[in-house]
Amino acid sequence: MLEMQDNIQVCVKGLKKNFGKLEVLKGIDVQIKKGEVVVLLGPSGSGKSTFLRCLNRLEEITAGKVSVDGIDITDKKVNINKVRENVGMVFQHFNLFPHMTVLDNVMLAPVELKKKTKEEAKEEGKRLLERVGMSSKAEVYPPQLSGGQKQRVAIARALAMNPDVMLFDEPTSALDPEMVGEVLQVMKQLARDGMTMIVVTHEIGFAREVASRVIFMDEGYIVEEGTPDELITNPKESRTIDFLSKVL
Ligand code: ADP
Ligand code: MG
């Protein structure tokens, strides 16, 4: 409860995650305040996706503690569906249901999980599609959309659960270059609206412009963190410098 008083929305202490003998996360400590936009950088295989998945218990953690909104999500008694409602996630691949319209994709979870009426969910769904610039495609099926459009629908779908925290795992990595901008634009607006966001991305420009904090991870540890200026412009650790020299 102390955490809530300090406006800490995500609190991670001593987080470890093993897959069998493989130690993927080796002790992560991080606290994220309400409204912060944290960009997570790191080489492939460093544990970024695993870290995000531990924040909504898509992975069971091996050791440590994760709390969201002051609730210990690793507590076996906690209702994991409630936790997941509160922590939205957007993946590299959009996972939309191809046989449902865009609007139905966005409405599905609120109707199924939040027990909203169809009418309520439809109103909210339309509003969210507007927010991501996809109103005109409400009745279209996902296979008819471009990658950037699909990802914007996926963001609207995650927002439909009215989460407090949004996790993005390389949301633009599968997109053709000309579609990256439209997705980043939606994410920037979300950040301006005050959403707490944790974003794994190699889009350094986005990190510079939008991140309140940048964390560099390597081999299951946080190597270095700071403001975009500190971490991207003036990195201190040799591993950070080496990584940035490859992506910049
Ligand atoms: P990143 O997102 O930074 O590329 P990941 O979190 O996906 O890294 O993976 C970190 C390490 O964990 C990799 O060595 C990967 O092979 C391993 N790993 C990830 N998920 C699993 C899993 N379900 N089972 C076994 N190993 C996994
Ligand atoms: Mg990954």
TrEMBL record:
<dbReference type="InterPro" id="IPR050086">
    <property type="entry name" value="MetN_ABC_transporter-like"/>
</dbReference>
<dbReference type="InterPro" id="IPR003593">
    <property type="entry name" value="AAA+_ATPase"/>
</dbReference>
<dbReference type="InterPro" id="IPR027417">
    <property type="entry name" value="P-loop_NTPase"/>
</dbReference>
<keyword id="KW-0813">Transport</keyword>
<dbReference type="Pfam" id="PF00005">
    <property type="entry name" value="ABC_tran"/>
</dbReference>
<dbReference type="GO" id="GO:0016887">
    <property type="term" value="F:ATP hydrolysis activity"/>
</dbReference>
<dbReference type="InterPro" id="IPR017871">
    <property type="entry name" value="ABC_transporter-like_CS"/>
</dbReference>
<keyword id="KW-0067">ATP-binding</keyword>
<dbReference type="InterPro" id="IPR030679">
    <property type="entry name" value="ABC_ATPase_HisP-typ"/>
</dbReference>
<dbReference type="GO" id="GO:0005524">
    <property type="term" value="F:ATP binding"/>
</dbReference>
<keyword id="KW-0547">Nucleotide-binding</keyword>
<dbReference type="GO" id="GO:0015424">
    <property type="term" value="F:ABC-type amino acid transporter activity"/>
</dbReference>
<dbReference type="InterPro" id="IPR003439">
    <property type="entry name" value="ABC_transporter-like_ATP-bd"/>
</dbReference>
<protein>
    <submittedName>
        <fullName>Amino acid ABC transporter ATP-binding protein</fullName>
    </submittedName>
</protein>
<feature type="domain" description="ABC transporter">
    <location>
        <begin position="10"/>
        <end position="244"/>
    </location>
</feature>
